[in-house]
Each structure stands twice: as structure tokens, then as C-alpha cells.
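TL;DR need C-alpha cells for one chain.
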Amino acid sequence: MTTTPTDDPADPSPGPRPGDPGTSGVPAELADAMTRAIKRIRRQTGWRLEPYGITPGQARALRTLAHVPGCESPDRAMRLSDLADKLHIAPRSATTVVDALEEAGLVERRPDPADRRAVRILLTEDGRAAVERILQVRDEVAQDYFGEVSPEDEEVLLRVLRAAEARFLEAGPPVRTAPPGAAR
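>> reply
TL;DR here they are.
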């Protein structure tokens, strides 16, 4: 079993090394390194979005809404249920996120013209400005984190991650099985 070291920015250790007790090879070490990177990037992004009153979850929702062509138009804006699906969260959780965004004036709810039971989420002008700030913060955090990595190494890392993701998606959803000895 591999362990994920703490995400303490003051801890200079790079994490487990091959051969250390508790490590199980390069793929697991790679997963641990990616987990640490994601945690640090997410934490930095959260800290930098805090002055704008935006959480990382709200930022994801705003970016997702902004990718919908015509997201300012009620007949083309994303439905709340579709937003939940895209974010891989429960509809109730999406409602909570949208409630906060609406309260901040970043989105607006409108009845779906094609289905009055459904709600569409429109990005407001302030929401568009927030998306621009979010993109700027993401770029700054990425530059800070990957700034010392050569463009060639960035390309290799991106290519490898895209290939791994494609293979994972191609294989379909993993089958969940109980670990040996677990109660069924």
C-alpha cells in the first residue's frame, strides 16, 4: 500500500522513494505525486480565489457554464441537472452551488422555455468577469507550480496524462469488488 505524504508546504520531503517501506512501485509513486500536485494546486487556487468570494467548487461550476455557447441566453443556457452531471455531483449539491452563485449575482435562474419544470442557469455579466478572474488565477497557479519545468517536459507530461485518461475511459467504469475478507 502506498501512502500519500502530508500536504504541508513547509515539509520539503518529496514523498516516498522507491524501496521505502509502504511503496509499491512507480505507478503508485506517480499516483502519489499527482495527488500531492493536485492538492497543492487546488489549495493555492482556493487561497487566491478567496478574496473574490469564490470557492474552487463554484469556480468549476462557473467555468463549466461558460463553456456552453450562448450561456447568456435562456434557450441555450445549461440546465441545472446537466450542470450536476457535468460536475459529477448530486443535483442537490449543484443546487447549493448555484444558490451561492446566484446570491453573489454571478448566475441567474430562469425557467426552461422548452420544459417549465426545468431550470436553466444563465451566466450574468458579473459571472463572465468572475470567469476571467478564475482563468487568470488558474494560469498564475499553474505558472507558479510548473514554472521551473521545461516546455518539453510539460508536453511529455500532458501527453502521458492524456493517454492514461484515454485508456482509462476506453476501459469503461471500473468494476467495484469487495476486498478479500470483507463482509458482503
